[in-house]
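Tokens for Metallopeptidase DUF4344. Go.
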Amino acid sequence: MPNTADRSKRAHIVLSGVLLLAGVVSTGCSGEARDAGQGPGAGPRPQAARSGRVTVVYEAQTVKPEDREAVALIRNSRVLERTADWVNRSLTLPHDMVVKVTAAVPPGVTDAVTQPDGRTIFVPPPFLTEIEKALADVVKTVERPAPIPASEYNTDDLTVLSTEFIFGHEMGHALQRQLLLANLGLEEDAADGFASFYTVNEVGPGPSLAAAVLFDEIARKEGTPTLEGMSSDHPVTQQRAFNFLCYLEGSAPKKYQQSLVDSGYLPKTRAPLCPQAWAMLDYGWWTQLQPHFSGAFRGRGAEEQKKAHERLIAETQALAKRIDEIRSGQ
């Protein structure tokens, strides 16, 4: 995880226990009767009849021996299913979505990817193994970052948590494409935002922290950004790590002030902007998803959107009072 106070504090992982997969394992995630939600200020009402659901499939026969440990770890953790279950409970989708953990991927695919129609997400087993190896290096060579509990600073936990965040990114793509959500910026930024929105609200700090550790390690190995990296539709890798931490810190500034800001992992020049940034992200995603809430989730979703809107107003007012002080300190 990036540390501006001590750049030597980086992170890596080790995996243990080989669990072999046999056959194709398809995990159906709990679904419910769905109908379209609608409220003041919402976008166009979705079509009434929707039955789309998310299913996670492990195509074990495609997995090479060297990737079985990583695939088994993710399968047994059920983090992919946890995200899929939340979507199935909370939203109505126009189409089914299948998440394939498989080596049988389209040409040129080397990492997790979402198809343009949002109906298929591919998770290649070698990609999971790469995550595992990168984090194994971190755990072996880097002092544990202060925000990460000692119980989670191991290969297995960091691999699972960072994969959950990365899958949240892909789910963000899938929802944008299936639901034809409006973006005010790059789709990759929005997908990162959904990963933060979902994991911070539904899981806790672990995925954001683990993803920051992983992306900081990737950035170190990438070295100086290249022309291709700077011109990519993805933000620069190191910047993404700081964005993950900013949204997390902004979600509960008092809780994370000491562990993230005072410890130097999130620069003090960035931290004052994070509460308003999180409030805007949180309200933005609740509002984007509001027309697509399932009947069972509509009440809770509307309440979450209302609270997010109130917080956005409060944080924007607080930022306005401090903006001159913040600017002069940068």
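The longest helix spans residues 298-329.
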